[in-house]
Amino acid sequence: MNSTTPTPPCPPMVLVFSASDPSAGAGMQADILTLVSLGCHPLSALTALTVQDTVGVQSVQAVSAELLEQQARTVLEDMPVAAFKIGMLGSVENVIAVAEIISDYPEIPVIFDPVLASGRGDELSSEDVISAIREMLLPQTTLLTPNAPEARRLAENDEDEGEPSIDVCAQRLIEMGAQYVLITGTHENTPKVVNTLYGADGVIRRDQWERLPGSYHGSGCTLASAIAGCIAGGASMEDAVHDAQDYTWQALAAGFRAGMGQFIPDRFFWARGDDNEPGQNEEKDDGKTDGA
Ligand code: PXL
């Protein structure tokens, strides 16, 4: 092919900063599966390698900040990136490196899932990493997607007597610099899962979803990547947040128990029929309810 041969248009490209999860339940593998399922081309900068299965995390080894920076800058200089997606970072040095890289591309939206612990409670970010996130990444974040415990941990301060409400946490995270905050309510004691999107003027939308019976590995990674994919494809923030929740709910509802621990979301639920023949689509009664 020479330089005058027309080439097909590029799919939207999302650069992901996150850690490897060999079980492909969470982390970079979950991000890549989600983005490909939504028609994006995923670019990746690995922040850490974890050793884990569907039951738990055995170890975490951060990559050096130099190697992380080389991975990201090399692809950024070669290809147009429509959105950044940030997950687990692995070290303070890696938080600093990512903060510096994204500050060179202020026009690219940043979808940041602050991974502080795994769904099963394994600690994935130290107190130092959390402080660095507050100081260096929140001011550059377009959309932050914590679950309620992560929102409380990021927003807590010494003057708190008791737990601040989710609304107060969101307001504080916006004051720290995030443009939008989506707090997911899976861990809250409500009959349905209530996810709330906040902006500078308060609540923008609240969506409610039927609770699913299983315990899922990588639901937060799926949601944040799906939002990044929708934004990269040109959706507004509100539409991206709605459509990504819908996608995630369906991926969780179709989740499978591959090992002895948590269910893995099926990010390609739409490509499988009842008899598991690839490529067959099946209409599903999805049982979801959404709205303000
Ligand atoms: O689900 C959060 C998450 C993100 N990234 C990595 C993880 C996990 C949870 O285990 O291992 C690499």
Polypeptide structure, described:
There is one protein chain. By secondary structure, the protein is an alpha/beta fold. It has one domain: 3-Layer(aba) Sandwich (UDP-N-acetylmuramoyl-L-alanine:D-glutamate ligase), CATH 3.40.1190. It is built from eight helices and nine strands. A nine-stranded mixed β-sheet has the order 3-2-1-4-5-6-7-8-9, with helices on both faces. Helix 5 packs across helix 6. The N and C termini lie far apart (about 50 Å). The relative contact order is 0.15. The C terminus is likely disordered. Bound molecules: 3-hydroxy-5-(hydroxymethyl)-2-methylisonicotinaldehyde.
In short:
The protein has 292 residues and is of the alpha/beta class. Helices cover 33% and strands 18% of the residues.
